[in-house]
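Hypothesis: this fold can be encoded by more than one sequence.
Test: take the structure tokens below, design a sequence, compare later.
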């Protein structure tokens, strides 16, 4: 996601919101792998973590 960084003097420069990636142990095709997944995917249950 992109946007603008606006200073107190209203100077406008480009900025970027980066994804919050975490390394997790997850099941990928039936095997346990270490992957980098965003926190919104981990919380929503899209990533099946290894117990």
């Amino acid at each position: 996601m992109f946007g603008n960084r606006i200073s107190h003097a209203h100077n406008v420069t480009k900025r970027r919101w980066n994804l919050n990636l975490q390394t997790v142990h997850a099941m990928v095709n039936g095997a346990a792998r270490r992957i980098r997944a965003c926190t919104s995917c981990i919380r929503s249950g899209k990533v099946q973590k290894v117990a």
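The chain has a mean pLDDT of 95. The helical segments are 39-44.
Hypothesis status: open.
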